[in-house]
Amino acid sequence: MAGVTDSPAPASPSPAPTTLGDLRATGATPVPVKAEIRANLLARLAAGEPTLPGMVGFEDTVLPEVERALIAGHDLVLLGERGQGKTRLIRTLVGLLDEWTPVLVGSELNEHPLAPISVWAHRQIAEHGDATPVGWLHRSERFGEKLATPDTSVGDLIGDVDPIKVAEGRTLGDPETVHYGLVPRTNRGVFSVNELPDLAERIQVALLNVLEERDIQIRGYRVRLPLDLLLVASANPEDYTNRGRIITPLKDRFGAEVRTHYPIELADEIRLLQQEAHTSWVGADGAVRAGDAALATPVIPAHLVEIVARFTRLVRESSHVDQRSGVSARFAIAGLETVAASAVRRAAVAGESRPVARVVDLPSIVPASRGKVEFADAGADPDDDRELELLEHLLRQATAQTFRARCAGLDLTGLQEHFTGGETVESGELVPAPALLGQLGTIPKLAELLGRLGVPEGDQSAEQAAAAVEFALEGLYLTRRLAKDTDGGRTVYGA
After folding, report:
1. pTM of the model
2. Under CATH, domain 20-259 is a member of which superfamily?
3. Portions of the chain given CATH number 3.40.50.300
4. ∠ CA 211-215-221, rounded to 5°
5. Residue 384 above 70 pLDDT?
């Protein structure tokens, strides 16, 4: 789909020249798209600026390889399992283009006014001379994208004869009877083919000339269109290397092959979650768009974000999960958004004015994320509860790991002593924060617990305190210092 990128809206108005003569008077010269990207990339490197902002965990691994490929002027293939940010990285490349570039008004091929390539463009300039209209194209419109599917045709990518133009009286030999496909329409831009191995082999052949000779051939036409673009493809390593579904001549024409990966460090997993997870139904003013409730934006404490990140990594490393399929970053993002949604729902039911996620919201991840995991036993009954039990176990393990990491050395004996006389504390979806805290009375070292969990001093509300205390209770249970009884949405902690 052309024009759909992560590039921001224009930061500056388009330049002034509106005719070919005005443009020529400025001393402008055509610059190949790869040279344009190289110059902007080197300028960012020299200035110490992020070259591809928003790519988390790739700084020391993937990005240097991509930067070297771009400096060399190579088309490239990104190899990686699902949800590793391949498409995001490709779309971010558009930010390395100049913000504005001149084009001939009406050109289907984004032709530079000083370097026309089509018969139509040459005729326009011959007829109008220096008065030929010039427009300006923003870099966000210089991106083309096609998801490779078995039904993709050469006409979709490259072009085909337009029967309507032929019916209008033009001869089949007339180059203007051609309806151009996505690739030539992205001339002077970045074109992406996602999941390239899924493209039929006979269709892959159509890309050979684009990558090597930089031109196109359509149904035997002797049409030479010297295209100027950067071609980037994505593929799953299994498809690319084992199935052999990318034809050898096409592999040979890509200049660089870059392997992507899931976040290596836990800190990167957490950063990725904080950057990408959002609740799309929350407006800029913090009000819920659907329904009548006017709840504030849900708050997800840092320790819950860490639990979701650890949970994702444990699922990814589990021997029960198909390692060839991988566990997408979307698994973690959707999980965190589900926790936020659970907090908002619980706050609406319990009558809390400020939804803050708590441990009680974590179990909602399991049924919501089950469909995002491919288990190793592909022949198992899809209704088998063992899959849910595995995810629940890994979630408890992630919670225990986070508790040990965050609360190591913290004296919680004062909290434990509350239960020595047989007292219990009830939590759950129907228990609001004040009711949970009210069952405990004065909580020893609560301020230190909140500090360990990263709650700012100015934000230590009853809801944040309840989230911290419930996490401590769950941690004491998981480390076998408290008992817990769960019945539906009701949870009771006791000695």
Report:
1. 0.85
2. P-loop containing nucleotide triphosphate hydrolases (3.40.50.300)
3. 20-259
4. 135
5. no
